[in-house]
Amino acid sequence: MLSVMSEVGPVSETPVDAAVGGIVGIHHFGLTVRDVETSAAWYENVLGFTRVGAYEAPDGSRRKVFLRHRGLNVRLGLTQHRDGDGGSFDETRVGLDHLAFAVANRDELDRWARRLADSGVIHSAVAPANSIPGAAVLVLRDPDNIQLELFADPTS
């Protein structure tokens, strides 16, 4: 039997919110990548992000590129660690499973599918999401194999 998760109704204040204040949003996402320049270029060229900053540790242990997208209120930070293992992302290991970007509606998701296909980016077909009734999703992977989703949710 398939189990379907759904969100129902507003979320009420928790005892933690009352004690210290609520969490008001996501400030940034940080992803570890093998080659920060290759990955930054991919996010810029494929998804339309813009480079807004960079950092290099004085000891050379890590390099970062910071990206923004006009449709998001969060930054995306890409980090290359000098001593990283060089392997591809694997969502079956503990940590990040995937990152989902919202799009306005199903028509926009279909336009993304055409754009990705025209650009030669491998991606899934647009399909019903298994987590929210009526939602649709398209799955793709970045150069480090990190699973990304473009997600159309009619309830949000």
TrEMBL record:
<dbReference type="GO" id="GO:0046872">
    <property type="term" value="F:metal ion binding"/>
</dbReference>
<dbReference type="Pfam" id="PF00903">
    <property type="entry name" value="Glyoxalase"/>
</dbReference>
<dbReference type="GO" id="GO:0051213">
    <property type="term" value="F:dioxygenase activity"/>
</dbReference>
<dbReference type="InterPro" id="IPR051332">
    <property type="entry name" value="Fosfomycin_Res_Enzymes"/>
</dbReference>
<dbReference type="InterPro" id="IPR004360">
    <property type="entry name" value="Glyas_Fos-R_dOase_dom"/>
</dbReference>
<dbReference type="InterPro" id="IPR029068">
    <property type="entry name" value="Glyas_Bleomycin-R_OHBP_Dase"/>
</dbReference>
<feature type="domain" description="VOC">
    <location>
        <begin position="25"/>
        <end position="153"/>
    </location>
</feature>
<keyword id="KW-0560">Oxidoreductase</keyword>
<dbReference type="InterPro" id="IPR037523">
    <property type="entry name" value="VOC_core"/>
</dbReference>
<keyword id="KW-0223">Dioxygenase</keyword>
<keyword id="KW-0479">Metal-binding</keyword>
<protein>
    <submittedName>
        <fullName>Glyoxalase/bleomycin resistance protein/dioxygenase</fullName>
    </submittedName>
</protein>
